[in-house]
Design goal:
Layout lengths: L1 H30 L36 E2 L13 E6 L5 E5 L4 E3 L4 H11 L7 E3 L17 E3 H10 L3 H10 L4 H14 L18 E3 H11 L3 H7 L3 E4 L8 E4 L18 E8 L3 E9 L5 E9 L2 H18 E2 L6 H5 L1
Antiparallel strand pairs: 1-13, 2-3, 2-12, 4-7, 5-6, 8-9, 10-11, 11-12
Length: 338
């Protein structure tokens, strides 16, 4: 019995000593009087501005995902075009610009906005229409009054051959007057935030259809999102089929890069563009080009001096960009991004 009592006293004695030790240790940590248990003290706390977030200078840097120039060289070619703009297709990084915000007549580049509006409408593309005299230009050769076409055929003639008559026939068949359709075009431009754009009719014959080169690049980006538009812009040669005629009619694209009549290194599936010309606009061209590494840019040429110049100037600028910029998956990009 006496042994049990001693064991009990001994156990509680150890517990008491433990509690006393913890108390001493705690006091030492706070005051720094017990060197064995003393924690390292922190330095002076830094004041941080901006609502408690670190500034960008204090944060670790990460590699950007935009294309970067290899050196500080500038494009050495000459442009006859009044306005020029080039941009990376994914990031919208500006790669070249000249008078990019000058508002210019679009001519048949207008048709990109027309087909975007048509793509939003409940058009039955398999339905047919008879071409009317009011649809046609005096010098129209692709389609003539009295011929019967599906609306799908007219869509391809409009985009591939840039036929004003085909656009007029589709708009008429959609149930809208040209004035009503222009309202829809301007509404779409506002939706796409094309602040410089204004449209008065769907073909581009009127010089009142205008936009800047910067906004044309955005219009092209939106257009190629639609397979029906993109497919037509990739087509160099097309056979239209007037349903009340025995023979099909061959039409060619107005994009001479696509036919390689203007020599270039791009494959047909890597070229998607639209031309335009009236006297007030000069020669216009906008195109999306993709190089062998799979990198895509959009180039806009407005007001070139000749039909050939709009294509060669777009081609040469694209060549320079692809040779003087690296993309994130290119060898050597990491060194540029450091």
């Amino acid at each position: 019995m006496r042994q049990k009592f001693l064991d009990f006293i001994f156990s509680y004695g150890l517990m008491g000593l433990g509690i006393l030790f913890l108390f001493i240790a705690s006091a030492s940590i706070k005051t720094g009087n017990f060197p064995i248990l003393k924690f390292p003290s922190s330095g002076e706390r830094m004041n941080v501005e901006g609502g408690g977030d670190n500034t960008s200078a204090n944060l670790p840097s990460s590699n950007p995902v935009v294309p970067l120039p290899i050196d500080k060289s500038e494009f050495g070619g000459k442009f006859s075009a009044i306005a020029v703009f080039a941009v990376d297709d994914i990031t919208d990084t500006v790669l070249y610009e000249k008078n990019a915000d000058a508002t210019r007549p679009l001519a048949s580049i207008t048709k990109l906005m027309s087909v975007l509006v048509l793509a939003d409408l409940p058009v039955q593309w398999s339905t047919t229409t008879i071409i009317q005299a009011d649809d046609c230009e005096d010098n129209s050769k692709q389609i003539v009054p009295g011929e019967k076409f599906t609306l799908d055929d007219l869509w391809n003639i409009a985009l591939i051959a840039s036929s004003n008559s085909a656009v007029n026939a589709i708009v008429r068949s959609s149930g809208f007057s040209q004035e009503q359709f222009a309202v829809l075009m301007n509404r779409k431009a506002k939706e796409l935030k094309l602040t410089s754009a204004n449209f008065v009719e769907p073909t581009g014959l009127n010089a009142g259809n205008v936009a800047s080169a910067r906004d044309v690049a955005s219009l092209l980006k939106e257009s190629v999102r639609f397979n029906k538009i993109c497919k037509a812009m990739h087509t160099a040669e097309y056979y239209a089929h007037p349903l009340n005629q025995q023979k099909a009619r061959r039409v060619w694209t107005t994009n001479l890069l696509l036919t390689n009549w203007i020599p270039n290194e791009f494959d047909a599936e890597d070229i998607a563009g639209k031309t335009g010309y009236i006297g007030d606009s000069g020669y216009n061209f906008t195109v999306k080009l993709t190089n062998s590494n799979g990198h895509s840019i959009r180039v806009v040429i407005l007001g070139a001096s000749s039909s050939e110049a709009r294509f060669t100037e777009a081609r040469d600028l694209a060549r320079w960009i692809f040779n003087h910029y690296l993309w994130p998956d290119d060898a050597g990009y990491d060194q540029l991004a450091e």
